[in-house]
Design goal:
The protein is 75% helix and 0% strand. It is an all-alpha fold. Helix 4 crosses helix 6, helix 10 runs parallel beside helix 12 and helix 18 packs antiparallel against helix 19. The structure holds zinc ion (ZN).
Length: 431
């Protein structure tokens, strides 16, 4: 069991300032031992404090008021407002970053915008002192990670370049370098970028650093390594990595443990060991349901649907896939929703339910094309996949004219491009 609910801002502040009594501190530490998210939030604030930002509690009220005022504005105004000097306070940056970590699981694009506002403020705070570099590094790095998760690669790389520039002035240059290497590897592992050799080379250096310095981060490196192997069709090697990650994860850290189990489950599915995959998944899903974090449950349900599919239980596969799709949609992860939806399309087809397959495939294709319109630098391979299903299943006349035109463009693109050379991207958890 997780010892208690996640820390609120005030508890975190008094703990970090050393103002909490012994019982409160013990409770906070017990929670941190089993909650990656709160550990990450505390990490951000602690790094800023160590670099000389000062106590958290003293300016707390002011910071909360300022941040609240900014976030009360419409999202599209945040970046512009962040340039306003009244917000140029290190505490506001820190608070925006911890809020973005929380928001990440709820609304990824929202979270990315929060981190961007933080980065804009950090860039505007005058001075090259370590503390400011530390803030800038954290802000641009988190912003970059969130953009990658949202599939916005150009902006993601630009943000990472900013983080790398700030990394020169941070206290622990080696750990900052490790984080940058891991981020670059993650970009290389994205299906639309897909540079597996480069990813592997970056991960090797990161692995060397973290083996000496930080075992928590080492697990992340191994997870990404497993993901690259899995997408590259090397399921056996991927399974080895995911087994190592699971062995190195403390079962008391329930959410991290469940993620490790789900990832191992994907590789077990890929090597054809369905029974073991199901065992890992059942344990993970039980823990994730209890913690109630939608995005984790969505990933589990997607794996469940694939396992059902392999055993020929297509009704059950459809049920899980559609539930997964709705879950991802609700937490603002339209890409993963489309991906889960495609599993349902396959199972409808296997059941010879052409009408349902067609209906869903067209909806997914329309959704993907709409997303591409909104965000030109976003993932394309997924749209191509959704559209090719729609193309196969739909008669041209059942598409709206708009979509039919877009489908034609994609069909042409697909005809020139070779088929996607790696396994379909799975909704793995990277931690
Ligand atoms: Zn927590």
């Amino acid at each position: 069991m997780t010892a208690r609910a996640c820390l609120d801002e005030m508890e975190m502040a008094s703990y970090l300032d050393g103002a909490a009594d012994r019982d409160a501190s013990t409770a906070v530490e017990a929670h941190l031992a089993c909650c990656d998210r709160c550990r990450r939030r505390v990490e951000i604030v602690r790094r800023a404090m160590n670099a000389g930002i000062g106590a958290v509690g003293s300016a707390y009220e002011e910071v909360v008021t300022l941040t609240g005022r900014l976030l009360a504005e419409p999202v599209y105004r945040w970046t512009m407002l962040a340039k306003n000097a009244e917000y140029h306070h290190p505490g506001v940056v820190r608070r925006l970053l911890t809020l973005a970590v929380e928001e990440r699981e709820l609304q990824i694009v929202h979270a990315a915008e929060m981190a961007h506002a933080a980065a804009v403020i950090a860039a505007a705070i005058i001075g090259e002192a370590g503390a400011v570099c530390e803030l800038r590094f954290d802000a641009w790095k988190l912003h970059s990670a969130l953009l990658r998760e949202a599939g916005r690669y150009d902006d993601c790389r630009a943000a990472l370049d900013r983080a790398e520039r700030a990394a020169v002035g941070v206290k622990d240059v080696e750990l900052a370098r490790g984080a940058i290497l891991l981020s670059r590897a993650l970009i290389c592992a994205e299906p639309d970028i897909w540079l597996p050799e480069e990813a592997v080379a970056l991960l090797a250096v990161a692995e060397e650093i973290y083996t000496r310095r930080d075992l928590d981060w080492l697990r992340r490196v191994l997870t990404v390594r497993g993901m690259v192997l899995l997408r590259n069709g090397k399921a056996d090697e991927a399974r080895e990595r995911f087994e190592r990650v699971l062995a190195q994860t403390d079962p008391a850290n329930e959410r991290a443990y469940a993620k490790a189990q789900t990832n191992l489950g994907w590789s077990l599915l890929a090597v054809g060991d369905l029974e073991s995959a199901r065992i890992q998944l059942d344990r993970a899903i039980e823990a994730d349901m209890r913690h109630g974090v939608a995005v984790d449950v969505g990933r589990d349900l997607c794996l469940r649907s694939r396992i059902f599919q392999e055993t020929g239980e297509h009704e059950a596969a459809i049920q899980s896939a559609e539930e997964s799709m709705r879950t991802f949609q609700k937490c603002g992860r339209p890409d993963e929703a489309v991906r889960a939806g495609l599993v349902a399309v396959q199972s409808y087809t296997a059941l010879s339910d052409g009408e349902a397959a067609r209906h869903l495939a067209i909806m997914l294709a329309e959704r993907s094309i709409e997303l591409d319109r909104l965000e030109p630098s976003r993932r394309r391979s997924l749209t191509a996949e959704a559209v090719s299903y729609a193309r196969e299943l739909a008669e041209r006349r059942s598409l709206t004219e708009d979509v039919a035109a877009a489908v034609r463009v994609y069909v042409e693109e697909l005809a020139i491009k070779p088929a996607v050379a790696f396994n379909p991207p799975l909704p793995l958890a990277i931690m």
